[in-house]
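Q: what sequence does this backbone want?
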């Protein structure tokens, strides 16, 4: 990691990227300090022209941020006044964008068919059961497993 930082610091074309990454990290830390419950469900995208842009993971989170905007702005101002790192940040608004994180569908586990030995054991149990409904269900299950 240190080698990468040195490369970025000493290369004039890459240094702006390092500075932007550092600024974004500082803004994310600010957001986490000001709105810890919301920072788990959102992240800072950018600050442009005094507008803090936040990416919310859902529409509900975006709505909550919009409803709390006035209080959040006051908390940000208070935090910036007390902070050594983010003193000159002058924000006028918070803009929220919804960016739903896609989640892959969970793979369904395929259940293995019972072995012939298991089916024979179930058949023997079905022969001994006195409950006609349970016996019928077992025989139906066994027949379906042998047909497939």
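A:
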């Amino acid at each position: 990691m240190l080698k990468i930082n040195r490369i970025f610091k000493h290369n004039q074309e890459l240094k702006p990227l390092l500075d932007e990454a550092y600024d974004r990290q500082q803004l994310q830390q600010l957001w986490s300090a000001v709105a810890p419950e919301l920072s788990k469900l959102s992240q800072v995208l950018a600050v442009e022209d005094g507008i803090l842009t936040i990416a919310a993971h859902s529409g509900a989170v975006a709505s909550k941020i919009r409803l709390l905007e006035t209080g959040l702005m006051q908390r940000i101002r208070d935090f910036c006044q007390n902070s050594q790192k983010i003193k000159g940040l002058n924000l006028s608004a918070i803009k929220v964008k919804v960016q739903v994180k896609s989640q892959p569908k969970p793979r369904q586990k395929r259940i293995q068919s019972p072995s012939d030995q298991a089916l024979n054991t179930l058949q023997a149990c079905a022969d001994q059961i006195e409950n006609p409904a349970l016996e019928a269900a077992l025989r139906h299950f066994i027949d379906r497993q042998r047909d497939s």
